[in-house]
Design goal:
Layout lengths: L5 E5 L3 H13 L3 E5 L2 H11 L3 E5 L7 H8 L7 E5 L4 H10 L3 E4 L4 H19 L4 E4 L2 E4 L4 E4 L2 E3 L3 H12 L7 H9 L9 H12 L10 E4 L3 E4 L5
Parallel strand pairs: 1-2, 1-3, 3-4, 4-5
Antiparallel strand pairs: 6-7, 7-8, 8-9, 10-11
Helix pairs in contact: 2-3, 6-8
């Protein structure tokens, strides 16, 4: 018998948490609930759910803190669910290690689509042990580690996902639309700058010249390309 995916919902609005839990139960998931940030950290560590749906406005510790702390030991999908619609909050969520960001009020079918998409991508990434190496650069999908000249580079979960996507398509230009689609399962709206911010951070960590990058190049009007011969 196939085990149902376990989704943990961390939401201090009990009525909303119950509604999300009931809806996902009806659609074939096992559910656990938490309404406090400090409690959620312990439960994520103990229960190791397949995915976490995480509100930002939580008592004791907010969602950003929970996400950052969880990423020290938890590498499965985290979907941030919040009433905040500011771009800065979305960027903070991504920088904290969230895989996706959904704004309230919750649309049930959109929520279910995001959950299924994140779980499927996580399953696909765990099915094979892969790595890419270009000169002094190496990225390993199994350990989710990045090395430059034998020195391990500290990257966030979202930075790793973007870097892996670029190396999987080394030498080929990926548009922002394609990047957002493959990383988050949604269409690029033309205004989201999170991809640009992640690329900028990766360039700094990989010693790429920000004014004249040679490793992760910008192709104006088209997108970004990982240069396989620049390492």
């Amino acid at each position: 018998m196939q085990t149902k995916p376990h989704v943990m919902v961390v939401e201090d609005d009990e009525s909303l948490a119950d509604w999300i839990g009931d809806y996902l139960l009806e659609n074939g998931f096992d559910i656990s609930l938490s309404n406090r940030g400090d409690e959620a950290i312990n439960l994520i560590r103990i229960d190791d759910p397949d995915m976490v749906i995480l509100d930002i406005n939580l008592p004791v510790k907010d969602g950003f803190e929970v996400c950052r702390e969880a990423r020290d030991f938890y590498d499965k999908p985290i979907l941030m669910l919040t009433a905040r619609g500011d771009e800065s909050d979305e960027v903070n969520g991504i920088e904290s290690g969230a895989n996706d960001y959904l704004i309230k009020p919750v649309r049930p079918k959109a929520l279910l689509a995001r959950v299924n998409s994140l779980l499927q991508r996580n399953t696909n990434s765990n099915q094979t042990s892969r790595q890419h190496q270009f000169g002094h650069f190496k990225i390993d999908a199994e350990s989710r580690s990045v090395y430059l000249a034998d020195t391990q580079i500290d990257v966030s979960s979202h930075e790793f996902n973007l870097l892996w996507l670029l190396t999987e398509n080394a030498g080929n230009v990926l548009s922002r639309d394609e990047i957002v689609n493959q990383m988050r399962g949604i269409e690029y709206d033309g205004f989201n700058r999170s991809v640009d911010i992640l690329v900028s951070r990766l360039r700094k960590k990989l010693d790429d010249n920000s004014s004249r990058p040679t490793k992760i190049k910008t192709v104006w009007g088209k997108g970004y390309v990982f240069a396989p011969d620049a390492w």
